[in-house]
Amino acid sequence: MKDLDLDDIAANPGTAESFEEVVARVASRRRFLKSGLGAGALGFLGLGAGLNGVAQAADAAGKGAQSQSAPSIGFSPVAAGTDDAIVLPPGYAHQVINRWGDPLFTHSAPFKGDASEGGDAQAQQIGYNHDGMHFFPIDAHGGQSGSNSQEGLLVTNHEYITPHFFFPQGVVPANDKWNADWVRKSQHAQGASVVHVRLNGDKGWEPVLDSPFNRSINGNTPMAMVGPAAGHALLKTGADTSGRLALGTFGNCGNGYTLWNTYLTCEENFTDYFGVGGQDEKSVQYHDQAQQAHLQRYKGSSKAADGDYRWDTHDARFDWTREPNESNRFGWIVEIDPFDPHSTPKKLTALGRFKHENAAMTLADDKRVVVYMGDDQRSEYIYKFVSDGRFDPTQPARNRLLLDSGVLYVAQFSAEGGVGDGAGSGRWIPLVLDTPTTDGRKLGDLFADMGELLIKTRQAADAVGATPMDRPEWVAVHPVTRQAYVTLTNNSDRGKDKARWPGGPTHPGVDAANPRAENPYGQIVRWSEKGGDPAQDTFEWDIFLLAGNPHIHPDSDPLSGSDNITKDNAFNSPDGLAFDAQGRLWIQTDGNYTNKGKYEGHGNNQMLVADPVSKQVQRFLVGPKGCEVTGITWTPDQRYVFINIQHPGEGLDVVPSQQEPTAVSTWPDGAKASRPRPATVVIWRKDGGIVGA
Ligand code: FEO
Ligand code: CA
Ligand code: CA
User: Fold this and answer.
1) Are 232 and 243 in contact (CB under 8 A)?
2) Which ligand does the CA of 357 lie closest to?
3) Residue 662's domain spans which residues?
């Protein structure tokens, strides 16, 4: 999601100690990164990669001391830049595939280039604003990951639409121009696309358009609600009196994938699409006060009505005053089986309801499945889910139920404990009915049952004293050590002491000193669970890096960033995050790309590689103008990496008097006045080596 988003205003009215306050208490800035390995740096056994590696690491747990070795990072770093292009290190090449509007099927309508397609055509084309993504080798099956690096199913999230490029007017469309087909078109451009792709000699990677696997899963695709909240009264609507059959997914931000080869798509800014049907907010009759407070806790503003997309005026289910429970059916993680094109996606209520960024799966020592998740809004929380059942690669049908039941926890960070400076400890608080609240009650006094608690996950986390964070984005788990890293993208509210909504409580933490009193650049924090076992309920954390800008801030200024940030690798707003098989940490940015003021020298959004041992960071890629770089996945042989370019050209901007978008970005098509198009980029080393090594 673009960084400068109105929906990113804080929604958390809590008063728990903020993460910034914790950090400020433990250390001063330049001491953060002097101590080499931080808290809980664990071992390396030279095991396999990704979730395979995690499974082996879980097997190996407790079998002796481990020592982590640094991955090789062999490319020459690229300079920051503002070109309208993909810029890579010497010796690398790339190809653009799966652009917005490209055909999903042989019978798809061709992309017209003037955005005049309607909703039906869009449902048979690649969606908009690509985000999280995963490559499933075509030979993956059951509990076994495949090994085919020439053919697979590429599943890609589509998060939202950029109206002035998505609709034919070519300028920011006035809200009164929205019509029912625009609504359907924008619903069909969100969700996830499944595309069968194949490496085809000199042509490179191509979609297999007659493949039965290709699929658009979008804002109108039927979905099953599963887990503890399924069938709850708060999920029932006029169209679905069972509370078990939702319609569609949208706002699909980051992703995850499972040990049993399914895809997890994460619903983030779902509240943007709901409203009050064009009524005047002041005269709106909500269902009741509890409904309004609940909406506001998720919306993050004094008004529940201010959607830009006008779905609520053309599709009644998005009108809060007519379908008070429809929005409760969004804000979940959705599991998709890409290998069964007729399968019904499942909304996993056990994993909680909030503005999900991504879902990072790992495995506990006893083979329970653990999923880490961030809630991407200012001062929201970090969560983890631990399944009741255990993963068994020989039991594919049982594995499919692992995300249906378990315990959801929320993180509380403490300045106490930890190893060295810039480190501390923390605990995972279970969100179950008998957990004590900070005011001496129990969660069971606040929520009638687990269904209500999960539908109101944020309120439950508020009540138990979870730690408000600086917009948690992606979590990534090291494939061997199972140490978890999270991007905290930035927080422009820092220090402003701003009320959340009229008469509402004050933003927690704005009075915190934090390492930086102001946090326009973001940071990456990591933690290790007790004994290295992700199912434990305590952890040790440390700061991996503080992003900053040494071009404009002197070394003595905390805003220059931590010691591993230099003029050569500076960036802002870390967002996408993933480890590759050898333990390189890939960091993608979604920040300010003006290259001016506080952001001078950062250039366009980019992708960097970090060594988790030395903490060295170097820039691998610069994206085109106005984009964010997000989503990352590899072929099993690590010879190809797929990434996404989201919202190229956005915000740079459009001249409202013109009938077509100003050609600030024409990526990737390049023709004069062509519209920028979100797309996937495949990158490889010309010598056939492992990418990044
Ligand atoms: Fe969808 Fe947090 O960005
Ligand atoms: Ca972001
Ligand atoms: Ca993001």
Assistant:
1) yes
2) 1
3) 19-268+331-685
Distance 446 CA to ligand 2 centre (A): 32
pLDDT digits (tens, 9 = 90+) for 430-487: 999 999 999 999 999 999 999 999 999 999 999 998 988 889 999 999 999 999 999 9
268 pocket-lining for ligand 1 (C-beta < 6 Å):
yes
Residue 539 domain flag: yes
1 lines ligand 1 (CB under 6 A): yes
Question: What is the number of the ligand 1 atom nearest to the C-alpha of 253?
Answer: 1
Q: How far is the CA of 424 from the centre of ligand 1 (A)?
A: 27
Kindly report the protein residue whose alpha carbon is nearest to atom 3 of ligand 1.
1
Q: Which residue has the tokens 């960091």?
A: 587
Ligand 3 centre and the CA of 296: distance in Å? 22
pTM score over 0.70: yes
Which ligand is nearest the CA of 159, by number?
1
Lowest mean pLDDT among 291-300, 317-326, 336-345, 497-506: 497-506
Has residue 337 been placed in a domain?
Answer: yes
Q: Flag whether 259 is in a domain.
A: yes
Per-residue model confidence as pLDDT tens digits over 608-623: 999 999 999 999 999 9
CB 312 within 8 A of CB 320: yes
Q: Is residue 168 part of a domain?
A: yes
Q: How many domains does the chain have?
A: 1
Residue 434, judged by CB atoms within 10 A of its CB (0-12, 13-18, 19+), counts as exposed
Pair 558, 29: CB distance under 8 Å: yes
Q: Write the CB contacts of 31 (distance below 8 Å, at least 6 apart in sequence).
A: 421, 422
Question: How close is the Cα of 575 to the center of ligand 3, in Å?
Answer: 5
Mean pLDDT of 277-299: 84
